Each structure stands twice: as C-alpha cells, then as structure tokens.
Amino acid sequence: MEHLSYAYGTNHFDQASELQAVLKHLWPASGDHWEDLRQFGALAGQELYEASYHIDHDAPPVLVAHDLDGNRIDRVRLSPAERQALAATAWITQPPYRGEGWLYHYALLYLLADPGLGCILTITGQTAYALHKYATVAIPQADAIKDALLSGKAWGATWMTESQGGSDLGANQTVARQSGDVWLLTGDKYFASGAGLTDYAITTARPESGRPGPKGLALFLLPRLTREGTLNFHVRRLKDKSATRAVPSGEVELNGSEAYLIGQADQGIYYTLENLTVSRLANAVVAMGIGKKAQLEVIQRVVRRQSFGHVLETHPLIRRDLTDLTVRSAAGLTLAFYGVQKFDGAWGDRPPYSGRYHLARFVTHLAKSRTADHAAAMTALSMELFGGLGFLEEYGVARWHREALITPIWEGPSNIQALDFLETVKRQRAHQAFLSEIVPMLDHAGTPEAQYARVQLERHLERLATLEGREAEWYAKESLTAVADAAQVALLYDMARSQGEPYAHLAELYSIRFLRHREYPFAVDQEANLWGGGWR
User: Fold this and answer.
1) Predicted structure pTM score
2) CATH of the domain at 218
C-alpha cells in the first residue's frame, strides 16, 4: 500500500488541523480524548486505510444464499480484512450513550472517512438510537439488543427506501398487519444497506388502518430471525455500486415478516426523520473526511512531481487549486460540526419538538447539502492534480472521488434537502434562531466580507419566508446554498476568536470565492502556510 498512496502510514489525526481546531472551539472537553483520537488517527491512516482499499478493489461482501444443508440464509461473506476493520471500529457508536457526546462520535467517523465502513457503523448506530429513545416493553429484550448493536456483536440497518418512491417516503407501500404481540410486514425495500449483514433493522411500514402519505407510516424493529429461529426476510440480490462497496446494499423482500412497533404508530414519520438527521450529519462529516483524504494525497504529490522544469507546487495555478482545497476543507468541516453541536444539545427532544431541535434540523440540511458539493469538487480536483495517475484505480486518490459521489445522493439529494430546509423556514421558523446565532458572529467580525455575508444571509431567508408554494420551492436550493455559504463565513470568523487570525483570513477567502463568486486574490500565491497545508 505504501507504493500506492502518499497518505498511507501517516497519522490522520495529527494531519487534521481543521478537525483539531473545530473540536477545541466547539467542544472544550475534547482535550480529555486527544490521545484516543490520536491513536485512532494512526489506525485510520494505516490498518483501516489499507483494509478499505483492499475491500473496495479486491474483496467486497458476497451474498451467500444457502448453507451446506440447503437452508436459505441470505447472509454475506465478509473478507477477514473487513471483519477485522469492523471489530476495530464498532466502539465509535458508543460515545453518545456513555455521556461523551456526539462530537466525539463524529470526530472518529471523520477520521475513518470510509463511507462503506462508515455506513455500516452509522446504520447500526441509528438502530440503537431508535431503541434508546423510543423502545417500549412491547419489544422483547430491547436493552440487550441495543447493547449488542453498540458493542459490535450485532449489526443494524435502516430500511426505508422503496422503488416506487425513493426519497418520497409517503409513497411507501409496505403494509403492516398486527398479529398478537408482533406485526407482520409485507413489501419490498429497494435500497437496503446492510442487507445480508444486518441482525436488526428499523424499517417503515403502513399499518392497515394508517392514513396515506408520510404521516401514515409507523416505524418497526425487524429482526433477521423469527421467534422460531427461521429466516424472517429474503435478500433478493446485492447492488453493484460504483463505490461504498464495504457495505452490502441490496433488495429485501418482506413476506409476512415479524416486526415490533417502535414507540407510537402515529409518530413513526417523526422517528424516521430523527434517524435521518443522525445519518445526514454522518454524511456531512464523512464527506469532508473524504475530501481530506484526497487532499492528503495531493499535498505530497505536488512536492514530488515536476512539470515544465519546476516542482508542481511552485506553479501559480497549482497554488490556486491547493488554496481551494484548504478553504473548502476548513469551511465545510466547521459547518458540519456546528450542525453536530446543535444536534448534541437537542437529541433528547421528542415530538412535538423544541425550537432548539428545529434549529439542529435547519443546520443539518445546510451541512448535508453543501459538504457534499465540497467533497465532490475536492476529490475531482485532487484527481486532476495527479494527472493521468489520478484516473488509475490502482492508486489511492481515484477511489476518493468515486466515494464522494454518493454523498450528494445518500439520505436525500440536494432537492430533498432544499424542500426539508424550506419546511424548517416556513413551518418551524427555525431561521430566526439561526439568525440570532449567526448574525452576531458576522457583526463581531465587522469586516466588509462579514457585512456582505450578512446581507446575503438575510436577503435569502427573507425571500424564502415571504414566497409561497411553487415559487418558494423554485428558489429553495439556491437559497440553501447561499445561506450555507454565508454561515460558513460566519463560523470561520467565529473560529478566529479562539483559534487565531488564519481563520478570519479563510472566512474572507470563502466569501470572495463562494458568495461574491470571484477568484481568490493573487496575493495568496505567497502564502505557503495556507495552500501548503500548514496554515495553522
């Protein structure tokens, strides 16, 4: 692997100056976990880095339909490398339930930054989350199941998507019929990540008496085995995906499958959206982690490769591109962890939710959508900076662009994020709490770029708040992007208060490039600490 990747064998926490700064700023207690993060950074840069490459290239999960006796088992065979990687990372789902908070969990997920392995951990954590908050006595051994999920003894999944609806959960057709102590589910789940690996899934279904649309959905716990120990559902096939190959994604058939109601039937859509918030934040954090992995490869490439008689990093256009990687990396990560911080303070809320929970949802939509843009752009640019080698699958950098391309799609593409973002503005008025936090950051900075960011922020939110119907939807995605960009400017300025002047400079550069849509100023050509990766 050392011949295929520059980033391999390095400590990814030691190289993640952006992560260190964000944790210091948003999570004062992070110092208590610094050594654990450093140890995990070493693991992420070596054993896990090599394992994820091997799984992607050589050893993805394989579906085994029957055992030696001819029994239908629908189980995946994992490579030893993947089993070892999952055993080494299963614990990162535990911190929120040990009182250590979501920032610790997501910091570890950022360092891992493999969306295949990360998906397995996230959907397992989401299953534990639903049981932790909403399991009732109707679910046998709910606490034991949660403990098994959090310890890596069992794996979870979130099966919501159906072929006829995709992100439109209201179009789901899976039906639930109560039969004594259990419910019997019938229907198909079309994009079921964890298929063949999962021991317990949470899934949506519509009770026979349920109303149409999303509010008629209930949430259920679906075990792999029935009470008699027989197979409870069938895996039709695994998907042939461009990336995220470590997580087996397939099609699952439910034919009178036994399941247990989670919480109240008429609250199922709210439980489901809560779980989506957990995974959308994971999507945002991992998107920036993927971008960082590609950046680590590039930083070493440009000091080794020569072009036109000079080392690559001496060329102005290369420095401009390196600047773009640095600015996007710092800004996107700040927004993602601001969303995590908001969620960390509100995740105990239940329906009907408080204003702080609606604020967490509002920020999550900003983070999920914009970090996906950053990841796709950063990894594409990284491939380009490698030249022809960047397009060869045998080397480390090519995979990161493939991995990044799922981040705009998973857990709702940008159009869905825009619609949900619009809903938090129109119905919950969450933008008012958001402005009360973000505007003072910009006012405190007091620079022309901060003032411009405030104008853009208020203009777009005022427009969304006043427009109605189809016209509001038409502008929702543009406004989401602009609000997210203004928020990143504000958050970078706020970071400067505790982490130093370089963050104020990054705020100005971000505003120039993404709010004013102008090129980075040429003066940055001489700022080696910034574009060279050592800006802090």
Assistant:
1) 0.97
2) 2.40.110.10
